Amino acid sequence: MSLKPILSLLILALLALPALAEHPSDDWRTLETDLYRIHFTPEYELWARQLAVEADTIQRHVGNQIGHQLGEKVDIVIRDPLNVANGFALPLVGRSRTVFYTTAPLSDSVLSYLDDWRTLLLVHEQAHLNHLSRPSRSSLTQLWQALYIGFLEVPRWAAEGYATVIEHQHNGKGRPANHLVNAILRQWAREGALPNYQQLSGDDDAYLGMSMAYLMGSSYLLWLQSEYGTDSLPAVWTRMAAKQGRDFEQAFKGVFGQTPQRLYRRFVAETTYQALAAEARMSDPQASLWLEHRWGLSRPALSADGSKLALLLKDKNSDRQRLVIYPTADNPKARQQWQQRQQARLKKDPEDIADIEPRVFNPEPLHQLPTRSWRMTAPRWLDPDTLIFSQAQQDDGGNWHFDLFTWQPGGNGVRRLTRNQNLVRVAPHEDGKRALALQRQYGHNRIVEIDLASGTLTPVVEAQGNDLLDFPAYRPDSQQISFLRHRHGHWQLILDSEGDQQQLGLNQVNQGNFISYPQWLDARSLLLTLGQADGIANYRLDLQHNRLERLTSHKLLATAATADDQRLYFVATDSQGQSLYRQPLSHQVGSAITLAAPTQVADTTPLPHLNREALPYGTGPHYLALAFGANLSPWQQGLEVGLKGGDPVNRLRWQLMAHWDPSGHQQGLLTSLRWQGWPIQVHGDLYYLQQDLQGLDGSNAPELDERRSGAHLGLAWQRRWSDWLSLQLSTGATLSQIDDRALSRNGIDQRSAYADVTANGHWQRGRWNAHYHLGGRASSGETDQQQWHRYDSTVSAALGFGDWRLSGGYQRLNLLGNPSDYDRLRLGGSDTSLTPSWLPWGQHTNAALPLSALVGQELQQWQAGVSYQAVRTFYQRYQMDKGSSLPVYGIEFQLQGLGPELDDALPELDGLNLRLGAGWAGDNGVDDPLGWSGWINLFYQL
């Protein structure tokens, strides 16, 4: 089996980050149109009905643009697990589906130039489905696509870039038309830093490297269309689905006459030339580098007296952040130390040449607060000693919410103000007792005022229709508030006085394409960032004279400004990341623009919604596909084939797996079903298992030759209380029969029951993290009229820094009573689809050991390891019945699932486990040593 489709799915999914939001046991409903089944929980019903109004029309339009219409209904699952804008599509031939996250993008996003979030999301994800789920015209490939997951395999830049092209061509907006996106590409071009072809699909080591598939990929494809015609790209996709097999490069070259790599180099050359020609017409910046960071920064916040500046610093290649407070004074000490080092070096070698002096000596941080969970948002000063900010936290169900916190360095530390309120863009009042914030819940957004003493929220402005709101703020010395509003495809700056709203005339400058980061300087003027065809810059808006003045040069991609009385601080973005610049506030670029007078804002009309009955979800629509697995090691050579199926919200999952081992050591059948439509999970299984260890090297049970069959019923419940404690309880019972061919005994009855408890937790401070796991199982049964009891206990802990982790643990399995030989503990063998944890047969797997490498009634295991991401090196020591220790060393790559979002939406691969490893094992009393081994395991366990 090729792993390429699985790995491609991982790349195509836009996000597979933290835990899921809506649970399968929630009250799911389904709204059907001619072309869609839309699945939602009650809080998203209005969002779903508004989506449904134009959904069929949009799908047909997208299909016409791409040149392929789908032949089946599409399932849309509506969620909001992360409280950020996202979604993903699964473009599988004959079984396409997509997941929408309802939280809309904000004004500073590359997604901000849109008509409305529902439409952009639907067009982009539907483009993936029409583009990539095109069936082959080859009969053999069609059969394979019907039985297994299949889709058009194109480079990531072509998949994401083309969907981004379609999102733009749908209504002229989207990322390719966003002034921010164009400014990013021009900035990279001026630096000679546009990605090469190999980097185009994604480069983790480059700033915005994973976004270039969308930004640069779409720009390249639009250039190809302009040079070769609008029919050229659909022709490539048509050629890829031909009876004659062609990969992307062959199909591309047949249309364009050249390889995609060669034409891309030409496109880069033209883009760079245009960017440099435009740069020659730009004024030189008057700003100087103040803080060099070279990755992500937030909007800076100056203290009231201008002596301190706070902002978020994002670490490279991760979501980890630090909230840092800097002094705004220069850092002469750092410069002096640098000069001393240069002088010392020249003293040792007078003929050497000193380094050129750095552009800036970064200020030394006064205080730092590392992230404690996931993302934080830009801080604001609440008073001279206290910052207020938002940070994402998980609730009891694993859903992520942005809540407000205060931080007082050296004082009361961090204090949480709200719980599960989804608040961002906090803006405190001068009195320090209240603050405005943007609340985004269930696809709706509004501005609220927070009483900082009690945490009480009071709605101030409700979004109407498709409106998006952003950056609320109190106008100094006034009863007015200001905010950005997106309406009818444009961003607008609004002044609101107790519901009486005025719209400022910024649309005459850029048609509302990119307007962001408004911040009051005083009661008569504010700073903001505007995009135009020439670039992105920071401006001062003088409300007294209704005049707009540009403050920064287009040679810098300047955003997110703040200022004191004399100095302007702003974020500048380039291919290395983001840094902070400073310049005189009085500097002005070009002539001021006089704006039209503010206009009164009228209410918008309510959005239409589909008035059709939504039906209970029940077991939902079902998908099924073949599943393949393998188990290869020196002691086991097995292949697996089966069927897997389920619904797109993960209520019902089932699988039928057959495992065949040509040596006959371990093989059989397992049928499993998992129901999550209730708060308590229900598991049901039927199994047939053959074990014949005769002729197996290294086994302590060469006489074992048995057949087992039986049924299992299990229940499970889990709850998360905090980062530090998640609890899972499970119980179940198994009825089995055993045929012992070695002793010619058939029909041996076995009955057993078990109860499990597992506790997990983690802690995080910046890049440091810690984890623990505690587990216990009590089981009891009767085999061949002999009663037994078994008690298992596990404890493990890990300490991590970044992607590295140091771990250790201990496990003890103890079999008591009067167990039969069929109940004894057996160490060794690989995990397969036939080895679920509930199976009462005593096997404790380890792929570096043969089946039944050790046999007994008490097994102890000590382990330690060092891991980096999914690769782990380990040392394990086993002891059976107080005998000699068996050491095992090894290294293993492990993939368990595709991430919670994909596992929910993709029943065809739910429960996937992949393990690749090699190890060495010592003396087990049969072989001294067992020696080196390697293993490949691909299997599925629900």
UniProtKB/TrEMBL annotation:
SUPFAM superfamilies: DPP6 N-terminal domain-like. Keywords: Signal. Residues 1-21 form the signal peptide. It comes from the Bacteria. This is WD40-like Beta Propeller Repeat. It comes from Ferrimonas sediminum. The lineage of its organism: Bacteria, Pseudomonadati, Pseudomonadota, Gammaproteobacteria, Alteromonadales.
